[in-house]
């Protein structure tokens, strides 16, 4: 089945189409869940909850734009709901003047694999990791991050700055 057939099958609640859709996208969506979840078990829960939401909302997909992008948005929102519900950002501190980052040594990034970089990102504290993922990987603005997480733009900026600083330190230690 091609993507259009999968989508139509899922809109008709066809179990074979749903399984095929799951098999096609589970790995990619799991990587999204792992970036936001604190551990593999949480990520697996987010994956299942995300697919339930995809199957429930698939009737609203109109075919304009990327289906994978539409799904990714659902999975990111599912992860953000989980983080808000569990008050992951309760330790966030708002600061008005963000400390300036030292010049980043990009040669350290070139020496490690993408998987190693993702592992370093996964080691960040939850608030730092969430804002880093949303800003750097997903492309959200600080205003969008603030609105989604119930924090101010300056808190989002400070969390990103601290995440970058911590990543920089970890890279220097390699």
Q: Top keywords for this entry?
A:
single chain, 174 residues, mainly alpha, Rna Polymerase Sigma Factor, Chain: A, Arc Repressor Mutant, subunit A, 9 helices, 71% helix, 0% strand, sigma factor, transcription regulation, DNA binding, transcription
Describe the structure in brief:
The chain has 174 residues and is mainly alpha-helical. 71% of the residues lie in helices and 0% in strands.
Describe this protein's structure.
Keywords: Sigma factor, Transcription, Transcription regulation. InterPro entries: RNA_pol_sigma-70-like, RNA_pol_sigma-70_dom, RNA_pol_sigma70_r2, RNA_pol_sigma70_r4_t2, RNA_pol_sigma_r2, RNA_pol_sigma_r3/r4-like, WH-like_DNA-bd_sf. With 174 residues, the chain is an all-alpha fold. The protein folds into 2 domains: 3-86, Rna Polymerase Sigma Factor, Chain: A (Orthogonal Bundle), CATH 1.10.1740; 91-173, Orthogonal Bundle (Arc Repressor Mutant, subunit A). The chain has 9 helices and no strands. α1 packs across α2 (15-36). The chain starts with a helix and ends with a helix. Residues 93-102 have low confidence and may be disordered.
């Amino acid at each position: 089945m091609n993507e259009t057939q999968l989508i139509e099958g899922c809109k008709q609640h066809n179990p074979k189409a749903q399984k095929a859709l799951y098999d096609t996208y589970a790995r990619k969506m799991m990587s999204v869940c792992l970036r936001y979840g604190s551990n593999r078990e949480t990520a697996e829960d987010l994956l299942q909850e995300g697919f339930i939401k995809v199957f429930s909302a698939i009737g609203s997909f109109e075919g304009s734009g990327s289906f994978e992008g539409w799904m990714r948005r659902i999975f990111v929102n599912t992860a953000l709901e989980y983080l808000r519900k569990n008050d992951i950002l309760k330790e966030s501190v708002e600061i008005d003047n963000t400390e300036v980052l030292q010049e980043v040594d990009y040669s350290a990034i070139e020496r490690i694999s993408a998987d190693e970089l993702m592992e370093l990102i996964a080691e960040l504290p939850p608030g730092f990791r969430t804002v880093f993922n949303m800003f750097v990987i997903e492309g959200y603005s600080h205003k969008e991050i603030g609105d989604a997480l119930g924090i101010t733009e300056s808190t989002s900026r400070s969390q990103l700055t601290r995440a970058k600083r911590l990543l920089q330190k970890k890279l220097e230690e390699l």
